[in-house]
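Researcher: Dear colleague, please comment on this protein.
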Amino acid sequence: MALIVLGVGMSHTPQMSMSSDHWAAYAANDARFPLIWKRKTWEFDDLVAARANEGIAEQVNDETWAAKYAQITAGIDQLAEALAEAAPDLVVVIGDDHHEIFTDDSMPTFAIYWGDTIEAFPPAEIWPTVAPAAWALHGEAPETYDCDAAMGEHLIADLNRRGFDVAHVKAQLEAKSAGHPFIAVRQRLMDRSVPPLPFVPVILNTYFPPNTPTPQRSWAFGEALGAAIAAYPTDQRVAIVASGGLSHFVIDEAIDQELLTVLESRDQKTIDQLDPVDYVSGTSESLCWLVAGGACAGLDFEVVEYVPGYRTAAGTGTAMTAAVWR
């Protein structure tokens, strides 16, 4: 039987992989995203006015940014240490897709990649403001990741029997790289001087309606994923990694704290009360954490760092978070 020896939750925002002296330039693009807060879409200036009494503007300065960058960097380093100490045979990475593996023509709710390898390479063009973080999101050179195809095939078949119609992906489309949620795990959590641990990419459609999963379905999928891993007939040490989140492109600490409380308590009644309307835009990546929470329900959850990285007075930014299940 396979054994889940560690769970990890890690944000993958470009913000935490570029030094804080780049944050102001990165923030200059924040108005190009739909700014969703409190279940409404806002114009940037209106959002600044609405949040004027929250003390956010006082956090938008070089000194605070430098401290927050150091805080989340230390947290990610702790996750890398935990992964190395756990010494897993493979890593099941749960991430969303931003048209990196799939397209609008075909976007399944849940998918598992089970090719023997997956290719990761930088795109031909990178937004200048994202360039300082490109090393973490895309890698600095093409790289081939080994995948545990046998485990992937087993998970697809087993999850199907458990009532989840999981799409299977065995090869990449031409010119399609592994998504940045997976590359960020390799770049931030693994020793880059040696080949990465074998992957099993689990891909969620969190961003693109109409078939995004609800929080409840995500948790249930995670429970089934954990059971499927445990049913694998060969002894394997497995680490689970949730890549993405938490709230962005507008930070909502209330949504984040509700999620983190659920992950710690594993209380089904509270899970049932999570509202899908809150898990939209970038915050939808938090659904990957719910999958990991369901899979790691037998382990204890601990927040290593929660860093609300406010970039503007409107509250735009990312709630940069590092956590473990062990």
The two ends are 18 Å apart (CA to CA). The chain has a mean pLDDT of 96. The first helix runs from residue 23 to 27.
